[in-house]
Specification:
Pfam family, one: Radical_SAM
Cofactor: [4Fe-4S] cluster
CATH architecture: Alpha-Beta Barrel
Helix content: 40-55%
Bound molecules: iron/sulfur cluster
Pathway: Cofactor biosynthesis; coenzyme F0 biosynthesis
EC number: 2.5.1.147
Strand order of the largest sheet: 2-3-4-5-6-7-8
Enzyme class: transferase
Number of helices: 14
Structural class: alpha/beta
Radius of gyration: 20 Å
Largest sheet: 7 strands, parallel
Length: 377
């Protein structure tokens, strides 16, 4: 039977109020099909008012420039030590070749992230290496939007070179970085992070770096790695931290903010065994990801209107389903994806524009190409 409290929460959300942490938790804990259907419908209605019926997509190309990484996140099937089978580190010509291929295929965005490779230095410094990555692409393609380097990569550069986060972000921005991927957030809860990514930045540092980016005028995205060891309390706590981060950016009048929220369900197939065993499954549970996405729309939508599923993690059919659970964007073509594919994801590594458009049209919604910052193309 549908809980009366659920109706009350959903009614308040439809009236435009922000729901509280406790209310978000009630929604996340629902198992009754009728209640879940009502949550889905509310998320879908809010998506309509907060973001319209049009489903957007971006033509982008991923470049993961190295998988050599000094860290050992327990979910990561991508990382290698130098010299391991499958370890790679692209040289400048290879990076330029991939960027050229992306632009030739219509990409407005290059998304660039990589492992934390201690050898990636120029004159024994990390920042000049990263600046050269940016310049390699921007010199050739100044019009392309470079969506690059997670908060973890910013901290890595700052740590290696003994710099402030603001110095690193400003230098990357000056060189031509257009926005920062809000990855490495995983779950913003230090208890979860101790298991998932003990060497990564803690919650406070992630929030500090993203807020610094906003202050400096660099837009970011936001993400959540879901469906592993985290509890509903930790999930809603994560959403609450993102919401207040965005409220700070908006209320303080910072020149940039979070442009979108993406749920990234955990794919365990090729992940290191301990976490895979603990989670006990290889592929994400679609229904869990859909409910979380719907609650995220209800919880965050007043502040972050753009919500995106991950077709890499859920497959195109799952991502399409998410469009009626609160999502208004289907993401990018990517053209090449290593991180999740090496984890055993079924979604594939490249999506043709026509395939994305057909998926959107098949649910009776209009589609529109956008750029990284959600302007029409
Ligand atoms: S998730 Fe990133 S930081 Fe963690 S091990 Fe993998 S590549 Fe390294």
């Amino acid at each position: 039977m549908k809980h009366k409290t659920v109706d009350g929460i959903l009614d308040r959300a439809l009236m435009g109020y922000d729901i509280s942490l406790a209310e978000g938790l009630v929604l996340l804990k629902q198992t009754d099909p009728e209640a879940i259907a009502a949550i889905r419908m509310t998320a879908d209605k809010l998506r309509h008012t907060q973001a319209s019926d049009t489903v957007t997509y971006v033509i982008n190309r991923n470049i993961n420039f190295t998988n050599i990484c000094e860290q050992h996140c327990s979910f990561c099937a991508f990382r290698r030590d130098d010299g391991d089978v499958g370890a790679y580190w692209l040289d400048w010509a290879q990076i330029l070749e991939k960027a050229t291929d992306g632009v030739r295929r219509g990409a407005t965005e290059i998304c660039m992230q990589g492992g934390l490779n201690p050898q990636a230095k120029i004159n024994d410094k990390s920042l000049p290496y990263y600046l050269k990555l940016v310049e390699t692409i921007k010199q050739e393609f100044p019009q392309v939007h470079l969506h690059a380097f997670s908060p973890q990569e910013v901290q890595f550069i700052a740590r290696v070179d003994g710099l402030e986060y603001a110095d690193v972000i400003a230098a990357l921005q000056d060189a031509g970085v257009g926005s920062m991927p809000g990855t490495a957030a995983e779950v913003l809860d230090d208890e979860v992070r101790r298991v998932l990514c003990p060497e990564k930045i803690d919650t406070a540092t992630w929030l500090e770096i993203v807020s610094t980016a906003h202050k400096l005028g660099l837009h970011t995205t936001s993400t959540m790695l879901s469906g592993h060891i985290e509890t509903p309390e930790q999930q809603i706590g994560h959403l609450e931290k993102l919401r207040s981060l965005q409220q700070t950016a908006i209320n303080q009048g910072y020149p940039a903010k979070i442009t979108e929220f993406i749920v990234l369900p955990f794919v365990g197939q090729e992940a290191p065994k301990p976490l895979r065993r603990r989670v006990g499954r290889d592929q994400p549970i679609l229904n869990d990801a859909l409910l979380l996405g719907a609650v995220a729309r209800i919880f965050l939508g007043n502040w972050i209107p753009n919500h995106q599923p991950s077709w890499v993690k859920l497959g195109l059919a799952g991502a399409k389903e998410a469009l009626v659970w609160g999502c208004n964007d289907i993401g990018g073509t990517l053209m090449e994806e290593h991180i999740t594919t090496m984890a055993g994801a079924v979604g594939g590594t490249c999506m043709e524009v026509e395939t994305l458009q057909m998926a959107i049209a098949s649910i009776g919604r209009p589609y529109q190409q956008r750029d990284t910052l959600y302007q029409k193309v």
